């Protein structure tokens, strides 16, 4: 049977009840992505000499501040959705309804990671390098939540993998007939991110990038892909400067910062990374009893 379109899941799949609780599928996807990122980052840091559990101590700060940054970045790039006469300002905090901006999470998460790294003694750039491929995997898992929320789609298309969107959805563009198919941007980003994981790991292994250069590759890769996806995205409520959506401007900035970080850190630190710990903060190595100790 040939694929003629990609159906959206029934709206009822976006949430379910568990006793008195309402569980949102979007939130579960985000949580799953966070868990995956923690496991992958810890394994990568442990392989470089970090203590087990140190990533949890960092993400306790990075995740909450990152979620706050993600939400407020979204709100303030979609002010028309939240600030109008008679608006319910409580919707600003309704994160379970979708609307969390990756670039906002990067800003907030960086602040939280800095705090967490200072408290644990881990070098911020070492943590960022270990996190880079894990971020792309976590973002891919989070994009599955966009699918269940019937969001993050692009311009109309006749391609056989065009996404079906119900004309009753609030994001369905005005003036288009029912049955119009759209580019599944959430799927494109998942594919782009997973390709990025493979490329980043390959380059890191080949050239042993450290001192933030692996994270710089993540910034460049993600920013390039996101700028293209945003160019074909349908998001009429997003604020724009000179007719260009805010997320495209943000993507250009992220790519530029990634290039600058890669070049500057490569010149500042041509030497191998001595330790993932800040100077003087590495934990003491436990004494292993020798045969003399046991006699």
TrEMBL record:
Sequence positions that bind a 1,2-diacyl-sn-glycero-3-phospho-(1'-sn-glycerol): 143
Highest taxon of source: Bacteria
One GO term of the biological process aspect: lipoprotein biosynthetic process
Pfam families referenced in this protein's UniProt entry, alphabetically: LGT
Keyword flag Transmembrane: yes
Keyword S-adenosyl-L-methionine: no
Primary location group: membrane
Class in the EC hierarchy, top level: transferase
Subcellular localization: Cell membrane
Region feature (Disordered): 271-295
Family from the record: Belongs to the Lgt family.
Functional description taken from the UniProt entry: Catalyzes the transfer of the diacylglyceryl group from phosphatidylglycerol to the sulfhydryl group of the N-terminal cysteine of a prolipoprotein, the first step in the formation of mature lipoproteins.
Name of the protein described by the UniProt record: Phosphatidylglycerol--prolipoprotein diacylglyceryl transferase
Organism annotation: Microbacterium aerolatum
Underlying gene: lgt
